[in-house]
Amino acid sequence: MSVNVAKLSSPNPDRLLPDPGLISALEDRFILTQVTGLTLVFPATWVAEIVRIDRSQILDLPFYDRLLVGIVHHNGLVMPLIAAARLLSAPKSALPERAIVVRLNETQERLGNVGIIVDRAIGSTTGRELPPDIFSTSGSGSMVMMQSHLVPGNLWQPQSWSLDN
């Protein structure tokens, strides 16, 4: 695959940047995934990579919100894993032996390097091929747009616990 590049006029003319047309095309792309019976849509600009993670590699975090499945060591970083099914209040499904994880990139600030566990990756599409109302609301029936506000802000804080006698 070749990438079109354009010379930067300032401050360093030797530095190469992606062609603005390529960036615009990426901004109009969306990654489609399946979570139970729903299609979860990610803006392509949010996605760093889609990887498979063995369940045996996941370290459980029992005193955190139930959305947080655990953490995994990936490419030299600790990646928190969120179950998309729980995020969408979809029927609970068991974690497979090899989970498919959409790792979000650093452009998503508090969700940068977070992995979202989905059932499967379907493909990609353009914004023109998506239902128009998916951009004004969080979803349209069986299709939901991934939005950062779906993840609670207190997700990263340990939850209190008590022993009942």
UniProtKB/TrEMBL annotation:
Which InterPro entries does the entry link to?
CheW-like_dom_sf, CheW-lke_dom
The UniProt keywords, alphabetically, are: Kinase, Transferase
Domain CheW-like, by residue range, is 27-165
Molecular function via GO:
kinase activity
The record's Gene3D superfamilies line, in alphabetical order, gives: CheA-289, Domain 4
- Which Pfam family, any one, appears in the UniProt record? CheW
Write down the SUPFAM superfamilies for this protein, in alphabetical order: CheW-like (SSF50341)
Example GO BP: signal transduction
Q: What is this protein called?
A: Chemotaxis protein histidine kinase-like protein
**What organism is this sequence from?**
Chamaesiphon minutus (strain ATCC 27169 / PCC 6605)
Q: What is the lineage of its organism?
A: Bacteria, Bacillati, Cyanobacteriota, Cyanophyceae, Gomontiellales
